[in-house]
């Protein structure tokens, strides 16, 4: 399982919600939030993390805490 987090650096561009709609949604605060975490590994999450203009998405292994996102 992976833990998915979005930092306050998020500017609400919606890129992640568009590329991985099951894993990110824009909240009332105008920022992206993962609807559920931890989640099963999904390459779409890593794609969203790689596409985020603010590098605001962090993905870690739920068991080990090891980063699996491209920004380590
Ligand atoms: S792609 Fe990044 S900046 Fe844009 S909504 Fe998602 S987390 Fe926020």
Structural key phrases:
single chain, about 70 residues, 2 helices, 4 strands, about 20% helix, about 20% strand, Ferredoxin
CATH topology: Alpha-Beta Plaits
The level-1 CATH class: Alpha Beta
The computed structural class is alpha+beta
In total, the number of strands is: 4
Number of domain units? 1
Distance between the amino and carboxyl termini: 18 Å
What is the radius of gyration?
11 Å
Portion in helices: 10-25%
Which second-level CATH architecture applies? 2-Layer Sandwich
Bound molecules: iron/sulfur cluster
Average of pLDDT = 94
- What portion of residues belong to β-strands? 15-25%
Largest sheet: 2 strands, antiparallel
Write down the overall geometry: globular
Strand order of the largest sheet: 1-4
Written account of the structure:
The chain is of the alpha+beta class and 72 residues long. 19% of the residues lie in helices and 19% in strands. The protein contains two helices and four strands; from the N terminus they run βαββαβ. The model has no long low-confidence stretch (mean pLDDT 94). The structure holds iron/sulfur cluster. Residues 6, 10-16, 24, 32, 52-54, 56-57 line the site of iron/sulfur cluster (SF4). The site of iron/sulfur cluster has 15 residues, from helix 1.
